[in-house]
Amino acid sequence: MSTIERFEEPVYVIRPFLPPLEEFCEGLKEIWDNHWLTNNGPVVQRFGRELSNYFETDNICLFTNGTLALQIGLQGMGISGEVITTPFTFVATTHALFWNKIRPVFVDIEPDFYTLDPEKVEAAITPWTTAILAVHVFGHACKVNILADIARRHNLKLIYDAAHAFGVRIGSRSIAHFGDMSMFSFHATKLYHSLEGGMLAFQDSGLKSVFDYLKNFGFASEVEVVMPGTNAKMNETQALMGSMVLGYVDKLIERRQRVTEIYRERLDGVPGIKLPPALPAEVRYNYAYMPIEVDEKQFGMSRNRLHEELKTYNIYTRRYFYPLVCDYSCYRSVSVKDPLTVARKVASRILTLPIYYDLPLDDVRRICDIIIALGSKEHDRQGSKLVAEA
Ligand code: T4K
Asked: What separation in Å is there between the alpha carbon of 14 and the centre of ligand 1?
């Protein structure tokens, strides 16, 4: 263990990709020249067209962040009553429901990819259910066909929190084309970002004007406000960054794939470390996160201890997503009927490892070696303790 050195600089779970500064400064000149900073300026409009091309649909709408996008999306679609959703997500998924006075009905996830378990979804439908809000967590595509079938049979809207799923494709189509609506986050911590930002992609083109009103105070003209909207507009600087990062996104995904391969090669077979299985062949993955599960008994130490021990090596992993959303104090009063057996187990074991574009591949190997050594050291320690006790 002593031979593996601590990282001199902190290694965080992510590090945002930034285009060359000169490129960004060059782009800023246009904004300076325009003296147009927000409120659907020319850079936002151009960025919208670029994203339409990327996602192969005109039915998109840009926002200042993903949370407001989802909140407004739910409101614009008129979702109410109960919505079946996952507790294994970032808290913003549930917050968006609550801001719309919608009751979340938490059901379990499936153990391989941590997405909503369709069987549990179907069992939780009541006369008050209006929609399913599923999350492509870590960029893992949900079981889109099965969920679509359930939604169709029960006349429910199918909405995806696709915050992690930029660049994911299923077969020949972008993941944005599945379900009635999908929300993408362009937050700095995402593989693709616009500093902060969010986007809705939707099937019903009639929703476009509703979302546009809702994100801009409901203004239809200088003298007409048609609905009580809010302010959730993307600004020109966000759009500039988003536009630039879009030019690199294939490279970013490619590089993350390489990082993931090294993690998988190195950690596969390590006792007590579980990696997600390969995704179905028709899914083009984006390598958004690098989740592992830690089995305390087999690995030798708990997930929480590994998380702490890694900090002593200057490695800052994250326990995405622990605690489950329903266990946060603000949601503890929500009645949860499903025992959430899988979600609870996963939340107690999950650890997301550093993954980002400029993470040197040797650093990835070193992170793996440190994890492996920590587990073996603990096994040795426990072994000696057992021998001593005997
Ligand atoms: N739905 C889902 C499923 C989501 O995951 C999210 C957001 C949303 C909805 C909402 O979308 P947005 O409204 O955010 O667009 C982070 C992000 O803030 C959040 O966007 C993201 N999910 C969530 C999974 O992760 P934190 O609280 O973990 O972030 P923070 O500040 O601790 O950053 C994580 C690490 O990243 C830090 O340890 C250091 C590094 N970092 C962070 C920032 C902001 C940098 O190196 N540079 C930076 O600029 O929530």
From this structure: 9
